[in-house]
Amino acid sequence: MKAYRIAMGSSSGGKKKYVNFRNRQRANMSFFLVVMFFAVFGIIVFTEIFFIDERGHAGGVLVRHGSLNYQHKQDRVVDYEDGFQIVTENQLPPYPDNLTLADGAWQNVNGTRYKFFVFSAFYDQRRQRNVRIIGATKTRGPERVWCRLWYKVNDFNSSYHMSVTVPGKIKVIRENWNLKYSACFVMCPLTNRTVPAAVSVVARVRDHPANLLAVINNFNESIPANRFAVCVKPLHFDYNREMQILEFIELNRLLGVEHFTFYNHTIGHQVACVLRDYADRGMVTMLPWQLNMVSQKEIRTEGLFAALNDCLYRSMYKYSHVLLIDLDEYVVPKHNDTLPQLIDYLNHRLNTRTTGSFSFQNAFFYLQWEDDDSVYGFDDPVSANLVTLRKTRRRSKLHPHKQRSKYICKPELTVEAGNHFVWEFVPGHGTLNVPADAAILHHYRICEFGGDDCIKTASVVDTTAYRYKNVLTEAVKARYN
């Protein structure tokens, strides 16, 4: 019996040793596998970094010939589509003399799988030096493109264009409703001190350019003071409401606005005549807007965000403040006669040191409400047809900021403009929400959701715009007649 217990104890002890041995083996194997995983991972990361660095040095090189002094000495460029085949600038298509140089017109980018158009180009030296192109392209997964930067070189009695080719970086503008196409920026980095005269965007470096944009350079170290401009989204549906556009321009002029930029998709004869007269006087810029994308199905509302941002950059360094508003909207101060006076009032009343835009709450003056009683006493048809005098009843409750609000921005501090607020500022700046007792946005329109139920909401009578009644009537009559 004793011998049996000894045998059993011996067997149990051996089994325990065996289990411990197997556990140590598993632990060693697990440690080995962990070490191998991190080793392989480290090799992959190192290889990826090295590979990207090599590609970056090959793909980001400026290609050049001519007499300009460049910081980079390399003279090769890599084509995305040709297996990283090296080419030199002399092998690329020359300056497209067959194209008309444009500073604001939709032009096609050939060779892309999806629609890709460019409209205008601006020199932007803030943060990094770039040529910033306003365009429209695919919202998700936009295609890669190249920028052919054209420099004019004067050589004795002749001149010619040389090019520098760089990869374009596409930045889709945020407000796009997730439609197939969106307004976008194409960023073309500059690595020398000289600003190019023009730029072409191509899908492949060997493609012949199908577009030619003048590079607009408005840069000015001293920002003009108290100069206000207005940007309006594209006019469409054969817009022909001449009284509305006369009232819009003349009331904003009384408010201190100097210049207006419009985009012509389709307008009627009478409005065309009105705008042509203002353009001849230097107060209006009218740009063609023939974008080959289906509005509301392929792109948001005639590509309005391309227009708003084009106007933003077009106004930069020429005007101190820019309003991005519609034809049925007015920023109306409560205590000041003009917008420059309002901004000066806010600057003294509030801390505006880092302000890049001023946001104004929206107030609906629904057109279904009855006209003001005083309209029936007007002795001329012009006064009786001015909406800011006819409609004085507004909704009591104002929309919060960023909902239906509009804004006045400082263009040199603004990077990306939206419809109701600025999406991106130069770092260190932001929006000031203007108190409603200083100014609000007067918005004259029908009920936003259809029908007439909107006029059942609580309302008040607001005759602030009557401050301009006499001078506005005379100004509109002078143009209308």
UniProtKB/TrEMBL annotation:
What Pfam family is a match for this entry? Answer: Glyco_transf_92
**For this protein, what is the EC number?**
2.4.1.-
Is Signal found in the keyword set? no
UniProt source species:
Anoplophora glabripennis (Asian longhorn beetle)
What protein name does the entry list?
A: Glycosyltransferase family 92 protein
Q: Which GO terms describe its cellular component?
A: cytoplasm; membrane
User: What is stated as this protein's family in its record?
Assistant: Belongs to the glycosyltransferase 92 family.
Which top class of enzyme applies to this chain?
transferase
> InterPro entries from the entry?
Glyco_transf_92
Q: Which residues cross the membrane?
A: 31-52
Q: Name one GO molecular function term.
A: glycosyltransferase activity
Q: What are the alphabetically sorted keywords of the record? A: Glycosyltransferase, Membrane, Transferase, Transmembrane, Transmembrane helix
Q: What is its main location?
A: membrane
Topological category with respect to the lipid bilayer: Single-pass membrane protein
* Subcellular location(s) per record: Membrane
